[in-house]
Each structure stands twice: as structure tokens, then as C-alpha cells.
């Protein structure tokens, strides 16, 4: 019987997302207000109707912008394969990477280990890139070459990966040797 483990990690809200939300609400109010302000001096009544429809369409756009700011990452381990997916607003799922766990060359919590290396692709699938609980996995991808995966697995995911990792990685992570 194949064991299946999964974990969801929500991305931390950053100031960039807050600025995007504030700008979208400001535009929602400003553009229709400008249409209404121009309608009276120019005596064009249809601009008031245009402003109303712009406002209605803007409400939908602002809701959409707010919803796509919600991002989660899902780690799934099953049968020696780890799959990392990005879930946007609980509507859209995108597989970021899927690899054999045995193909992982380096798996470490220490960022200093990978600082000197160069990567063709960097996949960030963690709540916060500056979190001390992040793990850094280096593997060779057929599509990109040397790839770095930054993720934050819990103990359940790590234990599911344990049987498929290389011996030196298991000794270093689980038994603090080497």
C-alpha cells in the first residue's frame, strides 16, 4: 500500500500585496469620480452612466485582485515522488515541480551551504523566504538543469521522504551527523 502525505503552507502577506490592494481600491474610487466630475462642466449626462458601469466593473476587478493575493503551496509525497503545487485563490492549481526524492543531491536547512552555488532555476514554495524553518533542496531537472527548491516541510513530510533520500542526507538531517 502506498502512503500519501500532504501539507499546505500559506504564503505570508507582504507589504507589496497591501500596496496593490490600496492602489486597486483607490483606482476604483478615483476613475468613476473623475467621470462624474467631468460630466457636470461638460454637461454630458452619459458620463454619469459610464462612471456607474466603470464602478460596477471595477468592483469585480478589485475583488479579483484581492482574491489572487491568496496563495498556498501544497507538498505531496507519495511513492518516492514529491510534488510541489501552487494554489492561487483556491481556484487555480499549478504544479511547480515534481521529482523523485532520490534525485535530491543536497537537502539542508542551512542557507550558507547553497550561497556559493549557481542555479538555472529557483523555486520558492515557502510561507516566507526569510524563515529559519525553510529547507533548501538541490536537484538536477531535465528541463532546467541545476535547480534549487526552497520549501518548509513539516515532520510528517520529512519522515515520508526519509526512506527515499540518500544516506548522507538522512544522517545529516535526522541524526545530526556528518
Describe this protein's structure.
The chain crosses the membrane at residues 18-40, 46-66. Keywords: Membrane, Transmembrane, Transmembrane helix. The protein has 178 residues and is α+β, with helices and mostly antiparallel strands. 38% of the residues lie in helices and 31% in strands. It has 4 helices and 8 strands; from the N terminus they run E-H-H-E-E-E-E-E-E-E-H-H. The protein has helices spanning 15-42, 46-68, 155-162, 167-174, and strands at residues 4-10, 71-78, 81-88, 92-100, 104-108, 121-125, 135-141, 145-151. The strands form 2 sheets. A 4-stranded antiparallel beta sheet has the order 1-2-3-4. A 4-stranded mixed beta sheet has the order 5-7-8-6. A hairpin with a 3-residue loop joins strand 7 and strand 8 (145-151). Helix 1 (15-42) packs antiparallel against helix 2. The longest helix has 28 residues, at 15-42. The radius of gyration is 23 Å and the shape is elongated. The model has no long low-confidence stretch (mean pLDDT 90).
Distance between the termini: 33 Å
**Neighbour order of strands in the largest sheet:** 1-2-3-4
What would you call the structural class? alpha+beta
Strand content: 25-35%
Radius of gyration, CA atoms, in whole angstroms: 23 Å
* Main beta sheet: 4 strands, antiparallel
**Overall pLDDT confidence:** 90
Q: Find the count of extended strands (DSSP E, 2+ residues).
A: 8
Which secondary structure elements does this structure contain, and how are they paired or packed?
Elements: E1 4-10, H1 15-42, H2 46-68, E2 71-78, E3 81-88, E4 92-100, E5 104-108, E6 121-125, E7 135-141, E8 145-151, H3 155-162, H4 167-174
Helix pairs in contact: 1-2
Protein name: YcxB family protein
Transmembrane segments: 18-40, 46-66
Keywords: Membrane, Transmembrane, Transmembrane helix
Amino acid at each position: 500500500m502506498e502512503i500519501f502525505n500532504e501539507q499546505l503552507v500559506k504564503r505570508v502577506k507582504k507589504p507589496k500585496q497591501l500596496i496593490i490592494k490600496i492602489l486597486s481600491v483607490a483606482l476604483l474610487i478615483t476613475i468613476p469620480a473623475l467621470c462624474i466630475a467631468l460630466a457636470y462642466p461638460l454637461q454630458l449626462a452619459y458620463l454619469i452612466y459610464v462612471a456607474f458601469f466603470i464602478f460596477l466593473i471595477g468592483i469585480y476587478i478589485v475583488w479579483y485582485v484581492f482574491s489572487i493575493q491568496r496563495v498556498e503551496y501544497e507538498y505531496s509525497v507519495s511513492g518516492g515522488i514529491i510534488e510541489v503545487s501552487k494554489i492561487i485563490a483556491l481556484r487555480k492549481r499549478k504544479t511547480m515541480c515534481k521529482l523523485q526524492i532520490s534525485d535530491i543531491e543536497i537537502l539542508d536547512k542551512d542557507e550558507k551551504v547553497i550561497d556559493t552555488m549557481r542555479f538555472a532555476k529557483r523555486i520558492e514554495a515557502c510561507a516566507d523566504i526569510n524563515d529559519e524553518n525553510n529547507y533548501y533542496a538541490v536537484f538536477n531537472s531535465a528541463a532546467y538543469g541545476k535547480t534549487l527548491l526552497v520549501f518548509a516541510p513539516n515532520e510528517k513530510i520529512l519522515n515520508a521522504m526519509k526512506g527515499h533520500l540518500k544516506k548522507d542526507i538522512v544522517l545529516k538531517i535526522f541524526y545530526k551527523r556528518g
